[in-house]
Amino acid sequence: MPRLGRKTGIGAAIAALILLSIGFLGWQYAVQGTDQSLTAGMKLGTDFTLVDHNGAPVTQAAFEGRPTLLYFGFTRCPEVCPTTLYEMAGWLDALGEEGRELQAFFISVDPERDTPEIMKGYSEAFTDRVIGITGDPDEIARVVAAWHVYAAKVPTEDGDYTMDHTASVFLIDRDGVFKGTIAYGESAETAMAKLRRLAGTSG
Amino acid sequence: MNRFTLLLSAAILSLSSAAASAHDFKLGALEIEHPYARATPPNAPVSGGYMTIRNTGAEADRLIAGEAEFADKVEIHEMAMDGDVMKMRQLADGLEIPAGGEVVLKPGGFHVMFIGIDSQFKDGEIRKATLTFEKAGAIELEFQVEDIRAMQDTMKMDGTGKMDHGAMKHGG
Questions:
Q1: pLDDT higher than threshold 70 for residue A4
Q2: Which residues of B touch A150 (CB under 8 A)?
Q3: What is the pLDDT of residue A27?
Q4: Is residue A34 less than 8 Å (CB to CB) from chain B?
């Protein structure tokens, strides 16, 4: 883990300045998109090659064949990501047999810092049902764009950064068709109803 | 993992956190109620610190900085939802604590961000960090680490994830 700007001092100040400039140059993998433009029935996504948290290759094909939950986030996210992963784990657990077919992925919007190892420890702390995905930042940027997800680096004072990102969970049916989202903070009841529909275990 | 054990530990946690809210600190005109931090998954480099800060004085004060041995940096942040996008901002000018008012730092809103933590925050631990206010000065606080399960209720109080700015009048 990089430990930037650990102590104040000239060295740190120079490092921060350099990092800040690099940060600005490399900034634009921010992809503007809006969930509002998405409607159920669209086929989203793009071909890509990334790695799952066990180091195995993952492609778009992973999102077909089974009803799927996709969540975009990052491990330096203090609130929405741990909350959402915790909730996803709870929904899948509560669905039990009804949700057996559902699969869930946590895609990093911060691939430069989120290695497969970091994603694995993080995801598995919540559940063994959510598989972390990370990899080449350009590939991630393409996936983020193809799902109309907003993800942007926001520089902090000392040249470090945090991320703004879409916090909704995407629901995809077994044919890879987008069915809707579960918003951050949505009640467990409506979330579970959506997942039952997605799993095909309710009308 | 056994669901019953989870529920049980959540229940015990909420009891213990209610009991722990007696842990308050005082610094000049400021009263700081129940500083707590969120337990972290393994590998998570960050955690959030929360508390209620009450200003009994006649002058506004401002939380301007923080420091902790266990973290590379301590920053003051605000999280807010903009539609379906989670946005996080460092409050470069700090966080105002209005005269006679209070500000609640809680999941989904204002928080102290511990960045580059040296080890996983485990439920039940105490982590010491120093916060500095513009007028009242610095104070070392003990943050009680709590499981995120114990925080669900706090978070659900406001579905937008955006909290009000806590400029409520405080009678005391």
A1: no
A2: 85
A3: 36
A4: yes
- State the smallest CA–CA distance between residue B47 and chain A in angstroms: 5
Q: Report yes or no on B170 lying in a domain.
A: no
Exposed, middle or buried, A114 (CB in 10 Å: 0-12/13-18/19+)? buried
CB contact under 8 A, B92 and A157: yes
> Which residue out of A79, A112, A130 would a mutagenesis test of the B interface target, given it has the greatest number of B Cβ atoms within 10 Å?
A79
Placement of tokens 């000018």 in the chain: B93
pTM recorded for the entire structure: 0.75
Count of domains forming chain B: 1
Chain B residues within 8 A of A168 when measuring between CB atoms: 84
Domains of chain A: total: 1
Q: Is residue A3 a part of any domain in this protein?
A: no
Q: Cα separation of B151 and B172, whole Å?
A: 27
> Cβ B72–A5 below 8 Å, yes or no?
yes
The verdict on A183 touching B (C-beta cutoff 8 Å) is: yes
B130 part of a folded domain: yes
Nearest partner of A53 among A126, A108, A1, judged by Cα: A108
Number of residues that this document lists for chain A: 203
* Closest residue of chain A to B73, computed from CA coordinates: A6
| Structural domain span for residue A180 | 10-199
Domain contains A97: yes
| Dist CA B61 CA B101 (whole Å) | 10
| Distance from C-alpha of A12 to C-alpha of B73, rounded to nearest angstrom | 13
> CATH code at A116?
3.40.30.10
What residues contact A10, with CB distance under 8 A and at least 6 apart? none
Q: For residue B12, what are the domain limits?
A: 3-156
Tokens found for residue A108: 């990093």
Residue B5 has pLDDT above 60, yes or no: no
Mean pLDDT (chain A) is 85
HEC profile of B83-136: CCEEEEEECCCCEEECCCEEEEECCCCEEEEEEEECCCCCCCCEEEEEEEECCC
